[in-house]
């Protein structure tokens, strides 16, 4: 297990460098002059423009800028934003909010998606199975920004059960509705994936054998059906954590949440490359760590899996 973990970590190293190289190249090739947005509606003088380009190494070639970027990552020096604020401070303020939002969304989609999926899979072809399949298909078909505006209007404005906007009051209670909206699409996929996997494993030989031995229905479902059905679900959930954090741009915009989604959106608008690249780099690391955790979790879920 230890050697497998080391080997998987070594495999992630070239993935990290490849992803960051591609990311930095795309940001480097963005059209326009990043210094133009700093003057607001007024043009900057040539002296000020040259000073800014020198300060942020904008006159250097691509590989020099990429080397300075990597050097800053490994020394936890993510540079300075165009406003003069350290990018690390910006991330320390924005990331906790988005992490809370993404984790709440992940818990929602995992708990309710697995529970409803198990019930639908065990009652394949029944009214509950047909109902959840139709509902999940409708949720997948509707864009998340439409679901967000509907939930905001109905639950927030009409019923008054949740705040319409979050703003600086980003406590857990105020993030419940945005988390549900953020998790809605993934919840439908988890439900359908669990339902298909459970329905397939419910008719397997080992399940019939366990039932013939006289094991109770709850034990057969939880031990012999659910554990074997969770492998694809856990794989999806591990990959979805990074997707939730990246997809928080729309949800945070709808509910006015000051997280990384809002920060990245504003930074892209003004061409603030240091902030955009630093935040996305951290998202890449979170995605890689989540996938490593999923690989190690396989042996816990399914005892038949052993790592040499």
TrEMBL record:
<feature type="domain" description="ABC transmembrane type-1">
    <location>
        <begin position="95"/>
        <end position="298"/>
    </location>
</feature>
<keyword id="KW-0812">Transmembrane</keyword>
<dbReference type="InterPro" id="IPR035906">
    <property type="entry name" value="MetI-like_sf"/>
</dbReference>
<keyword id="KW-0813">Transport</keyword>
<dbReference type="InterPro" id="IPR000515">
    <property type="entry name" value="MetI-like"/>
</dbReference>
<dbReference type="Pfam" id="PF00528">
    <property type="entry name" value="BPD_transp_1"/>
</dbReference>
<feature type="transmembrane region" description="Helical">
    <location>
        <begin position="9"/>
        <end position="28"/>
    </location>
</feature>
<dbReference type="Pfam" id="PF19300">
    <property type="entry name" value="BPD_transp_1_N"/>
</dbReference>
<feature type="transmembrane region" description="Helical">
    <location>
        <begin position="233"/>
        <end position="255"/>
    </location>
</feature>
<protein>
    <submittedName>
        <fullName>Oligopeptide transport system permease protein</fullName>
    </submittedName>
</protein>
<keyword id="KW-0472">Membrane</keyword>
<comment type="similarity">
    <text>Belongs to the binding-protein-dependent transport system permease family.</text>
</comment>
<dbReference type="InterPro" id="IPR045621">
    <property type="entry name" value="BPD_transp_1_N"/>
</dbReference>
<feature type="transmembrane region" description="Helical">
    <location>
        <begin position="97"/>
        <end position="120"/>
    </location>
</feature>
<keyword id="KW-1003">Cell membrane</keyword>
<feature type="transmembrane region" description="Helical">
    <location>
        <begin position="175"/>
        <end position="191"/>
    </location>
</feature>
<feature type="transmembrane region" description="Helical">
    <location>
        <begin position="275"/>
        <end position="301"/>
    </location>
</feature>
<keyword id="KW-1133">Transmembrane helix</keyword>
<feature type="transmembrane region" description="Helical">
    <location>
        <begin position="132"/>
        <end position="155"/>
    </location>
</feature>
